[in-house]
């Protein structure tokens, strides 16, 4: 299958590209950065250099594809997110979405997998894992991706062959896992958490997230939403303690930050994101026949910790 991945150079995209090549697909990546081409081409990937926000060759190429997985998004991680930053993120996100749909000819493309996030649904509460039918009340990043999700839903209603997917917390050997856990534990610095909060958390191993996106191209239904998480939502402190155990740290240091200080340091969006429960079910994904490589964090975390430690040696 010819598959174009937008955002194929990012956190999820890098692993998705590997899984797509491994699965034998003719894999194309759209990137703005010509310098990333060489490494991708060595992997057997075809690179399209282009910016979704500008006209270019990508607009023709997109309709030669069987499927597009859309991950491209403005950057989010690693800085304070004020309301102003978040509003500009929302504008950027929506602009990418509108230009993507404008380039697609729904008669040519077979499937678009449009990637959102479970913050679109908001705080799940801690009672039972919620499904795709949970009434959306976006929290954290949610309000800032919801204009894009609403736009994608309108386009689907007009006949675009898309499914919208909502990954929960994607864990892998880099990004937030490295920043929040691996680096501090490795350097004997405190792990920071929010005082008085241990919200539910629905992890998904980054390889399984990538595999689920590929799986849904063929097994998902047009117009349907799919949550991507593993089989076991859990409290975030349980997840953290398992990482500490696997890293072999006997006397970890902790720094508890009160909510008001978190607001000051990270801003209201990330504070809301960090305090909301993410207790979601991937039952619908499983009903499409998807099989996890790492069904729960118990299988997945050792692989991720090992991979990160190998990168340090
Ligand atoms: N990370 C998570 O835990 C998580 C969880 C749930 C959902 N999600 C969603 O999954 C998506 C991908 O997340 P991520 O963490 O992998 O993102 P990321 O690492 O920040 O990567 C973003 C990608 O977008 C591309 N991009 C940005 N602007 C572009 C433009 N104008 N034209 C073409 N490409 C552009 C960048 O490519 P170049 O710089 O190479 O051009 C980069 O590869 C996002 O929608 C995010 O909200 C993420």
UniProtKB/TrEMBL annotation:
<dbReference type="InterPro" id="IPR001509">
    <property type="entry name" value="Epimerase_deHydtase"/>
</dbReference>
<feature type="domain" description="NAD-dependent epimerase/dehydratase">
    <location>
        <begin position="3"/>
        <end position="228"/>
    </location>
</feature>
<protein>
    <submittedName>
        <fullName>Dihydroflavonol-4-reductase</fullName>
    </submittedName>
</protein>
<dbReference type="Pfam" id="PF01370">
    <property type="entry name" value="Epimerase"/>
</dbReference>
<feature type="domain" description="DUF1731">
    <location>
        <begin position="257"/>
        <end position="296"/>
    </location>
</feature>
<dbReference type="InterPro" id="IPR013549">
    <property type="entry name" value="DUF1731"/>
</dbReference>
<dbReference type="Pfam" id="PF08338">
    <property type="entry name" value="DUF1731"/>
</dbReference>
<dbReference type="InterPro" id="IPR051783">
    <property type="entry name" value="NAD(P)-dependent_oxidoreduct"/>
</dbReference>
<dbReference type="InterPro" id="IPR036291">
    <property type="entry name" value="NAD(P)-bd_dom_sf"/>
</dbReference>
<dbReference type="GO" id="GO:0005737">
    <property type="term" value="C:cytoplasm"/>
</dbReference>
<dbReference type="GO" id="GO:0004029">
    <property type="term" value="F:aldehyde dehydrogenase (NAD+) activity"/>
</dbReference>
């Amino acid at each position: 299958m010819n598959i174009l991945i937008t955002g194929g150079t990012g956190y999820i995209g890098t692993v998705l590209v590997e899984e797509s090549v491994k699965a034998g697909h003719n894999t194309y990546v759209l990137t703005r950065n010509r310098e990333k081409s060489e490494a991708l081409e060595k992997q057997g990937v075809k690179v399209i250099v282009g910016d979704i926000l500008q006209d270019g060759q990508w607009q023709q190429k997109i309709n030669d594809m069987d499927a597009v997985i859309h991950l491209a998004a403005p950057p989010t991680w690693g800085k304070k997110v004020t309301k102003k930053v978040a509003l500009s993120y929302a504008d950027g996100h929506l602009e990418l979405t509108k230009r993507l749909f404008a380039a697609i000819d729904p008669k040519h493309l077979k499937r678009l997998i449009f990637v959102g996030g479970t913050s679109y649904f908001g705080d799940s509460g801690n009672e039972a894992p919620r499904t795709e039918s949970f009434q959306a009340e976006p929290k954290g990043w949610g309000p800032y991706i919801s204009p894009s999700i609403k736009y994608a839903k309108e386009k689907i209603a007009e006949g675009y062959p898309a499914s919208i997917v909502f990954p929960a917390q994607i864990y892998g050997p880099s990004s937030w896992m490295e920043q929040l856990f691996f680096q501090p534990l490795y350097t004997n610095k405190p792990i920071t958490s929010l005082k008085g909060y241990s919200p539910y958390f629905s992890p998904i191993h980054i390889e399984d997230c990538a595999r689920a996106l590929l799986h849904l191209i063929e097994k998902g239904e047009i117009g349907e939403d799919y949550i991507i998480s593993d089989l076991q939502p859990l409290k975030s402190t349980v997840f953290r303690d398992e990482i500490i155990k696997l890293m072999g740290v006997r006397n970890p240091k902790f720094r508890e930050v009160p909510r008001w200080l978190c607001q000051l340091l990270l801003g209201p969006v990330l504070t809301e994101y960090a305090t909301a429960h993410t207790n979601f079910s991937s039952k619908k994904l499983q009903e499409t026949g998807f099989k996890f490589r790492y069904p729960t964090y118990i299988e997945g975390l050792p692989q991720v910790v090992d991979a990160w430690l190998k990168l340090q040696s």
